[in-house]
Amino acid sequence: MALLLTAFVVGCGGGGGGGSGPAPGSTVLPGAVGTPGAAATNPTVGSASPASGATNVATGVNGPGNVVTGTPVTATFSEAMDPATITAAGTFTLKQTVAGTNVPGTVTMSAGNTIATFTPTAALLPGTQYTATVSTAAKNAGGTAMPNPVAWSFTTNATALTVQGPVNLGAAGNFTILTKTGIDASGAAGTLVTGDIGVSPTAAISITGFGLVADPSNVFSTSTLVTGRVFAADFAPPTPANLTTAVANMETAFTDAAGRPAGVGPNLNLLAGNLTPSQTLAPGVYTWNTPGDVSISTNLTLTGGANDVWIFQITGTLRLETGVRILLAGGAQAKNIFWQVSGAVTLLPNSHFEGVILAQTNIAVQTSATANARFLAQTATTLQGNPVTPPAP
Question: How many domains is the chain partitioned into structurally?
Fold first, then answer.
């Protein structure tokens, strides 16, 4: 939920230089749309992560390729902004509150130009308060500047704490189902896939049971079982090249997830892979390698915040038993749950699955199983009357 930040009038040009923080006594209303801090049409920052006043913030994030950076800081604007004004040096800054030392980093904008992310180059210091500032150099798409700078502070964990960042799916993230050797939906009625599906390097003949109807462009096909588009390696350009990229990104994502530091303590070979009775798992990396097979026999709950990440490293097979459900709690999101499985994946009848499957072999979804998921398989995927929707972005 959006939270109201405290906005400060910052001296010396809005927080771009040295060590001066918000001036004492200069607090003004935050300038959210419709408040006295700004006209209703003025842009402002309405929410941020880490939140204003947050404590025990992780010092770093282990992201794609095992690259550790400082914990990213995001600012969500009330409207679309001019990205050039946000990414310009000195507009969105982070500094140690007491020492006044600027933190080196990079600023990026979301596709809709409403969310700015400051990513520190290196891990933050433990037990330290930091202040993020967005200066009045920030302008909306129409060129109107924020009337007041906005600043908020948070404090890192007392000891160095690195959390996991999401696995970067690249172009593979454009597909609900992506495989290298085939997708079959001939097993039972009731399959409905929301989003795009694709196969490469195999041809459209390996997509069976969908009743494909070729678009006149021959760039894609449609199906009554797919709300999006269907792509195959033998379709017209640019489809073959796009699929080659997506499959390569899928393989890279598998390698990335497999290469994250293995789970330790209770996160290593939990219950020898037999997840019963019901388990509630916090964010982190969970690894099974002795033995490598995992069977989820009772409901599994993943509880954490909207930005928390789970990575399950499974060197054997994964089975979600009949009628068993994966449940999310506390704001956990399916897009941040990654199942890296070296063996086969089987979702048994009437089960429910959440997350992104990165499978080195095949994924078999049995009768009436449902999924809020992406199925990214380096061999094939089979469906038997299954509704499959992709995780919310």
Answer: 2
